[in-house]
Specification:
Blueprint: H1 2-11, E1 20-24, E2 30-35, H2 38-41, H3 48-60, E3 69-74, H4 78-86, E4 91-96, E5 121-123, H5 128-142
Parallel strand pairs: 3-4, 4-5
Antiparallel strand pairs: 1-2, 1-3
Length: 143
């Protein structure tokens, strides 16, 4: 989570919401790293999770990320939850829960939906205070 928080802090330079993510392989090797870049590159899909998943798939040469862990500083939205399901990620580790748009247990729970063909393990609240403080500080400066 420390590396994800570090990556999230880099998003501040481009006025993006400070969210960082990484994908770790079953052997503990870092496969992908991402931070929110929507503002920076003008891409609505450039969320930290999606970018980390893309990089991990490129590293492995496969879209199937079975046995991998996605670590992210903020609970994934519906788009990112869908991406982690479709990539077959085995575990999600998240920092702060997102009571406005979270889709892995708070507002929605796409990863535990009985109709889903894949159900990753979800571990929430890891370094939640630090992750949440980064987001709160960012939005406080936007008001």
């Amino acid at each position: 989570m420390g590396l994800a928080l570090h990556e999230a802090s880099h998003a501040l330079a481009s006025a993006d919401v400070p969210v960082g993510a990484l994908v770790v392989g079953p052997d503990g090797r870092l496969l992908g790293l991402g931070r929110n870049r929507r503002e920076e590159i003008g891409d609505p899909t450039a969320h930290a999770e999606v970018l980390a998943l893309r990089q991990a798939a490129a590293t492995l040469g496969s879209w199937r990320l079975e046995g991998c862990t996605l670590v992210v500083t903020l609970e994934p939205c519906a788009m990112c939850a869908g991406a982690l399901l479709l990539s077959r990620v085995g575990r999600l580790v998240l920092g702060a829960w997102d009571p406005k748009a979270g889709a892995t247990g708070s507002v929605w729970d796409l990863v535990r939906d009985q109709r889903a063909t894949h159900r990753p393990e979800v571990i929430g609240g890891v370094r939640a205070e630090e992750c949440g403080a980064l987001i709160r500080e960012f939005f406080a400066t936007q008001r």
